[in-house]
Design a protein that fits this description.
The protein has 202 residues and is an alpha/beta fold. It contains six helices and seven strands; from the N terminus they run E-H-E-H-H-E-E-E-H-H-E-E-H. Strand 6 and strand 7 form a beta hairpin.
């Protein structure tokens, strides 16, 4: 889901963007994506999300392809736990885009509430929201919020309800594809995703 109204942006709770970011570099295979830690354009300050990026790239070619597309862009995408539509939605690309020295910056938040979705559903949600970031970054002329709003009026479907925003068929398809791939490639028993502490805290 994509918010395009700045007034609907919800503040993340309990965490800033400062901190050491583990990053995923551009890659040509999901194995390389999972192992790349030196430079990236998909970033987070949350250990659970960092492990989720690695695991998603390992288990799902579609997930890996989305991260790869962002890695090849001129954008940097920050992903953190937070709340969309005052907690009514599980995730969103926020109505925020900044440009500095040719680099565009976007922000995604996903719910930290584990009771609302399974582990694999979280990975699919991350891929879905990252695909929205990819949609923005694929259009080089989108460098501010008005241009982002115009883009989604063209490619998106308006979301019914007071929160506003847009959805796209492509992002929905990515989420479904990732969930299907994850179901065929089960989570390793030794996964470290649950050992990184509570969501939203370091």
């Amino acid at each position: 889901m994509v918010y395009t109204k700045r007034g609907q942006q919800n503040k993340r709770r309990g965490m800033g963007l400062a901190g050491a970011f583990l990053v995923l570099a551009g890659f040509s295979s999901s194995a390389e994506a999972a192992d790349a830690v030196d430079s990236s354009r998909v970033r987070s300050a949350n250990l659970t999300l960092l492990e989720s990026f690695r695991e998603g790239a390992q288990r799902s070619p579609t997930f890996a392809a989305v991260v790869d597309a962002i890695a090849r862009s001129n954008g940097i995408v920050y992903v953190e736990f937070g709340y969309c539509a005052f907690g009514h939605l599980n995730g969103c690309l926020l109505p925020f885009i900044a440009t500095s020295e040719g680099t565009r910056y976007l922000r995604i938040v996903v719910t930290p509430d584990k009771t609302r979705q399974s582990h694999d559903q979280l990975l699919a949600l991350l891929a879905h929201e990252m695909h929205h970031a990819r949609e923005v970054l694929e259009h080089v002329g989108v460098s501010d919020l008005p241009a982002m709003q115009l883009l989604y009026r063209k490619i998106g479907t308006p979301i019914a309800g007071p929160q506003g925003g847009f959805e796209t068929t492509a992002a929905l398809a990515v989420g479904d594809a990732v969930l299907s791939e994850l179901s065929r490639n089960r989570r390793p028993a030794t996964s470290t995703s649950d050992r990184s502490g509570a969501p939203g805290h370091r």
